[in-house]
Amino acid sequence: MLNHLVFGAGLIGCYLGANLQYNKQRVTLICREHIADKLSKGIVLTDYLQHRIAVEPIPSLTSVVDAMDSFDVIWLTVKCTAVETALAQLRLIVGSKTTLVCCQNGLGSEQLVKQAFPDNQVLRAMVPFNVVELADGHFHRGSQGTFAIEDNPANFNFVTDLVSHIESPVLEASICNDMDSLLWAKLQLNLGNSINALADIPVKAMLQQRKYRQVIAQMMRELLLVTDAKSIELPKVTSISAHYLPVILNLPDWLFKIVANRMLAIDENVRTSMWWDISQAKPTEIDYLNGAIVEQAKLLGISTPVNQKVIELIYQLSNNKLQNKRKITGKQLYNLVMPKI
Q1: CATH number 3.40.50.150 is the correct assignment for the domain at 3-177
Q2: Of 38, 39, 42, 172, whose Cβ has the fewest other Cβ atoms within 10 Å?
């Protein structure tokens, strides 16, 4: 049994922590006080396939100052934008043998952790699904995907144990031996996050409208120009391969519903994390998502106009400078970002 700390336990962190508890691990959550209050009667996890597990209340703290234990594993589940702030607190509890698992979206935020803890094992993890809170202590995974943890050949047995400690009837988990490629593939899927924030409608409703899909598809094409130039072969993380995905998204609505029925097999009310960030007036992860593509593209001399324009729109929305604020229709968005394509 290992001693785990989930640092920054929100929706994803509570979901992961409850899975660790289900597998009889020692678990502590660092979370906000209002979240801790909701967890006082235990946690229920469900998924879109109607699986269900329940666990007893998990010890929850609001500050690392109250953490008396030394931890074998710290799961860092804060947003990319909060990683740097978290480092000061982590320094108080990271031991010489602590492994840190970075569960952020996008690219590059784990470098801050590696720089802060150069002598510790730092692993990346990929979270491919959305989680919503249906009631106090009830967390629901609304979409498909296998949680992946980065391999470390020098410590393979340890990583294997981590996978076994976190997988459950409501969470598939695996080891990934090429996390760079996997995170680029995940980034391709995350490009819909910004469009969901601008559209201000559930993801399923967004995907049912071709104009939104066409914008997402063009952002994906720009990403693929970058990964091709870097000779990165993207693994298949959905039922549709990376290079074929923009083609599918560009199909007429009636044909898309037939061909991509699995892509639409998500809960009616699921929205992306960027939508939630905007709704709660929090900083978004746009710089680590679309911004990562633009940054890498500039180094390669590749043009990414649609991603750049979407970044501008998200900044305007975040700063309340976007006309009509929310609910940009698919046609409006298409005309804003793709007038010459």
Answers
A1: no
A2: 42
pLDDT per residue over 170-214, tens digit each? 999 999 999 999 999 999 999 999 999 999 999 999 999 999 999
Longest dimension (CA), the chain: 59
CA distance 306 to 65: 45
- Map out the domains of the chain as residue ranges: 3-177, 180-337
Element (H, E) at 86: helix 83-90
Nearest to 98 by CA among 65, 61, 127, 69: 69
- Rounded to two decimals, the pTM is 0.89
Most confidently modeled of 68-77, 262-271, 315-324?
68-77
The CATH number of 180-337 is: 1.10.1040.10
Tokens of 184: 């680029």
Q: Is-contact 216 191, C-beta < 8 A? A: yes
Tracing tokens 């289900």 back to the chain, one arrives at 22
CA-to-CA separations, 323 to 61, 151, 274, 289, 317, in angstroms, rounded:
41, 46, 19, 24, 8
> For 41-66, what is the mean pLDDT?
93
* Contact criterion met (CB below 8 Å) for 35 and 11: no
Measure the CA–CA gap between 255 and 232, rounded to whole angstroms: 30
Q: State pLDDT tens for residues 86-117.
A: 999 999 999 999 999 999 998 989 999 999 99
pLDDT confidence of residue 339: 67
